[in-house]
């Protein structure tokens, strides 16, 4: 199965968080990310260091593990125009919607642990067709096929 994951899921690959085992299980599939994901995970790890939740050495090791997992990476440059259009309609940061744009482009399911993004999409009166690609990590079923967009 082809999956796009965001930094909220990637963090669970290397940090002890709720749903970490479920996030790591996604690595059994074809995992794709926009190149933006690597900057986001580096920022997330930096914030953990600043808050004293991990050392700089631990953060560096976690980043190296993420990079070694080698998810298929796509240039964000090719996704930002679509993400901008989605963001305006959803009133949500465009960088989160770069992942959705990649899922659309690749015919993949987007799996996220970002509860705020999921809630915004689920609360839309008229969800756009791409909304069906968004799957919370808590709801991910490995055998379920990705919906098709008509």
From TrEMBL:
Mg(2+) binds at residues 6, 96. The keyword Magnesium applies. It is an enzyme of class 3 (hydrolase). The keyword Iron does not apply. Residues 4-117 form the PIN domain. Its cofactor is Mg(2+). One of its GO terms (molecular function) is toxin activity. Keywords: Hydrolase, Magnesium, Metal-binding, Nuclease, Toxin, Toxin-antitoxin system. Its EC number is 3.1.-.-. Transmembrane segments: none annotated. Belongs to the PINc/VapC protein family. Toxic component of a toxin-antitoxin (TA) system. An RNase. This is Ribonuclease VapC. The lineage of its organism: Bacteria, Pseudomonadati, Pseudomonadota, Alphaproteobacteria, Rhodospirillales. The gene is vapC.
